[in-house]
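Consider the subject:
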Amino acid sequence: MSGEKKQIKEVLIMKRKTRIISISLFLSICLLFAAFSSVFAGDYGDALKGVKSIKALYDFRIGDLKSAALHLKLIHQTYKDKEVRALDKKPAFVVVFIGPSVKLISKNREGFSPEEQATLSEIAGTISEMSKDGMKLEICLVAAKLFGVDPATVLPEIKAVPNGWVSEIGYQAQGYSLVPAY
């Protein structure tokens, strides 16, 4: 009988060790998952700590087609970022087109190569999506005049303002954070 008790005791000890190892392994996997999930979720650390809403104003002056297309997509992705959208209030984004960027938001595509026209179509598509998502888009008429852009040819989603700087000053006075896009 003592041999059987010894075997039973050894089996119980093995089961206990197996349970401890299993629990330890499970907890380790949970900790590892938690650590990596915050990395993959785009954890912004302290940047969004205590933030209830985001109001961003993009001073958009990029005149290079490919760079402008890329930056507009990035602005739109920022607006749709899951952590930005998870804040208490819906984000408020405004893009004010100033300087050479005004040439890229016109329906008039004279003087552009077929490849450039394809990029202009991509820009127009991104602007349309941004507008549908509720982002405000404005063009500075001072810049439009300076760069020879007829206001009647500006993409329909974009509101014309007499002076983009006055608009930007107003948005900043309302608490919008200025983000230069040059």
